[in-house]
Amino acid sequence: MYSKNDAAARPPMGWNSYDYYNTMVNEKQVRANADYMAENLKEFGWEYVVVDIQWSDPDAGSRNPDVQYIPFSHFCMDEYSRQIPAPNRFPSSEGGRGFKPLADYIHGLGLKFGIHIMRGIPRRAAHEHLKVLGTDVTADMIANPFSISRWNGDMYGLDMSRDGSQAYYDSIFALYASWGVDYVKVDDICNTNMYPHVPYSAEKEIEAIALAIERCGRPMVLSLSPGPAVIEKAWHLEKYANMWRITDDFWDDWSLLKAMFERCEVWQRHVGGGSWPDCDMLPFGKLGWGWGKERVSRFTREEERCMMSLWCIFRSPLMIGTDLTQLDDEVKAMLTNREALSVHSYGHGAFQLMRDDRRCVWISYGRGCPARGQEVYVALFNLADEDGEIGFLLKAVPGIDEGASYAVRDLWRGTDLFPLSGGAELSIELKAHDAALLKLSQ
Fold it and tell me: Which of 65, 206, 237, 307 is the 20 to 30 A CA-CA neighbour of 278?
């Protein structure tokens, strides 16, 4: 029997086109980023190559900077109301081949392929009364004109009480399975923020999509966007999805990063078992926010280390948002740090030990068991706007033996620090907005 854990036993790691290419990524660019990942990042656990929004629109980006998503766009569809890649941007898709040639290329590199979709059915399909595969139903009969996105005009949500709605979702995921898709990011679904009084109004569509994935016969990571996710629906998200955004779009702004500590605290007990609360993409390096106008991330090196430390110890999915071919050496070193990534892949039981306006401490546990000297991971964060010493008493950590001696290793720098008694204070001098990720072992 299919289990969603089959698709994401560990938090997914990969690249997503949006932060740099916005709506305009093309096949040549996707292949270039995939090639870079295969050559430089794959051996460290990075594996997903995800084509984000508007891949079916041949004119995407043509009205920038005035319009991001072209109203009433005639994006590409098949006769069964299903979006297909725009062949002027993805030439290997011509002749009805869809994304299969691109997915085959990425699989040939030893990587996995993902796409973005909006929930629901294209409005154009509803207006033209196009068919739904395997039914006598047309798109207008299942579309809900009162369920729309606040920020993208392409789709109507589906009325899941109507015959044919599940069949439509079954049909698109069967198509994705035939292409070889491994990961689907579904948007306007985790928090339907057009309707603040019912932010989880797409609950039944989430269930229908999960069922469609199960029926398609191919394991796929199900990622839900945007956030903030509704904590009261954590049980539902854990049951049906692999990833769900706990924030709205995250960009290179310290205030957004600082706010993420509270979001992670809220969601810390809902991590694991194929379920991964998602802090959103990593806006490193060169970015294209501004609808195609390249710029450099505003994060300092310290803030980048802070972000990676939190994402790793919390075990958020890691999705790089830059053009990989322009990665600088310092960012690449962080993304290929095996010891830090081990915390992300294999740590467990992470929780926030303390937080105030100046400091934050997160704890996670590694291999072994307490009786035999289980590894303890410690992330120290300087949340203040000035340099300072960040510390706490080790005995506050469950499982720490006050009478034992612990070796302390700095995972980002790959160096062994001072031995420390379990009854002592652990203290590190950190620059403003910086972090340290440490391993304690007996």
Answer: 65
Quick one: 63 exposed, middle or buried, by C-beta within 10 A (0-12, 13-18, 19+)?
Answer: middle
In 3D, which of 190, 296, 174, 182 has the Cα closest to residue 234?
Answer: 190
The continuous run of DSSP H or E covering 205 comes out as helix 203-216
Q: How far apart are CA 428 and CA 210, in angstroms?
A: 45
Q: Is the pLDDT of residue 226 over 60?
A: yes
Instruction: Provide the pLDDT confidence category of residue 168 given band limits of 50, 70 and 90.
Output: very high
334/336 Cα distance (integer angstroms): 5
Q: Which long-range contacts (CB under 8 A, 24 or more apart) does 35-41 make?
A: 35/109, 36/324, 36/325, 36/327, 37/109, 37/111, 37/324, 38/109, 38/110, 38/111, 40/324, 40/327, 40/332, 40/336, 41/324, 41/335, 41/336
Burial of residue 288, with CB atoms counted within 10 A of its CB: 0-12 exposed, 13-18 middle, 19 or more buried: buried
Taking Cα atoms as reference points, which of 209, 285, 197 lies closest to residue 240? 209
Give the per-residue pLDDT at 418: 87
For residues 321, 340, 369 and 239, what is the CA-based torsion angle, rounded to 10 degrees?
A: 0
The whole-angstrom separation of Cα 259 and Cα 273 is 26
In this prediction, residue 371 carries a pLDDT of 46
Q: Residue 207 to residues 150, 187, 257, 442: CA-CA distances in angstroms?
A: 22, 14, 31, 46
C-beta atoms surrounding 262 within 10 Å: 12
Residue 361: which residues within 8 A CB-CB, separation 6 or more? 352, 353, 354, 355, 378, 379, 380, 381, 390, 392
How high is the pLDDT of residue 65? 86
Under 8 Å between Cβ of 346 and 394: no
- Please tell me the number of Cα atoms within 13 Å of 336 on its side-chain side: 14
Query: Strand 221-224 to strand 243-245: parallel, antiparallel, or no bridges (unpaired)?
Result: parallel
Q: Mean pLDDT, the chain, as a whole number?
A: 95
Distance CA 50, CA 145 (A): 29
pTM of the complete model: 0.96
